[in-house]
Amino acid sequence: xxxxxxxxxxxxxxxxxxxxxxxxxxxxxxxxxxxxxxxxxxxxxxxxxxxxxxxxxxxxxxxxxxxxxxxxxxxxxxxxxxxxxxxxxxxxxxxxxxxxxxxxxxxxxxxxxxxxxxxxxxxxxxxxxxxxxxxxxxxxxxxxxxxxxxxxxxxxxxxxxxxxxxxxxxxxxxxxxxxxxxxxxxxxxxxxxxxxxxxxxxxxxxxxxxxxxxxxxxxxxxxxxxxxxxxxxxxxxxxxxxxxxxxxxxxxxxxxxxxxxxxxxxxxxxxxxxxxxx
Length: 278
Prior knowledge:
Layout: H1 3-19, H2 25-32, H3 36-44, H4 51-60, H5 67-78, E1 81-83, H6 84-87, H7 93-105, E2 108-113, H8 124-138, H9 144-154, E3 164-170, H10 171-175, H11 181-194, E4 200-205, E5 219-222, E6 226-230, E7 234-238, H12 241-257, H13 262-276
Helix pairs in contact: 1-3, 1-5, 2-3, 4-5, 7-9, 8-9, 11-13
């Protein structure tokens, strides 16, 4: 959990404690039908409140009009760290729909992905395999087919003028066994075809390339206003200028190590040949 996120959660807890003034924690827990430990965890920032928790807290402490303020604080907190547990409560499709909004708002999109083929370039079968593995990991609803359809709809943006997609992947992403060899081979064919699109610039960092920064978490840059960074437990939505500048420098460093055009095509073809012989 990021330090900034934890500080924001503690600040929300302090505000909840202010609203409880004159009411003991035990009494408030009784009013709400909660355990006293839940009240304590929310106030100390050891547990993240839900929207329903905040509405109930505002009513139980005699401040129903402040429910909106508390909700705004929660949304501000969640806008920076969006846990997969919360996002995937209704499955993967709503997450894909949320990302579509950011894609449509942006003119220049830059991506780094070192562990698998980036979602925007995935085939349906490859995407289905990836969604299935993450649904297993997060024990989330298995709306796999709906999620795949949503991802494929987003890919239509590749064929519309007015946007540029500049994507850099590590060579390892071409070989990751997140699907069957046959699906991986078809995915390499898809990448080969993408190289010719005028809206896409696809770079691959070879295994042996010298890199100025170690390849790490995948992320997207939406124009110069937003970075979305992927982690195992959450997505980080970053919009403060200082943090954005770090991700912009990281992306530029990785871009400088990538190869393009015919050189990238050779790496993709090598990965396809390996998949054929697996």
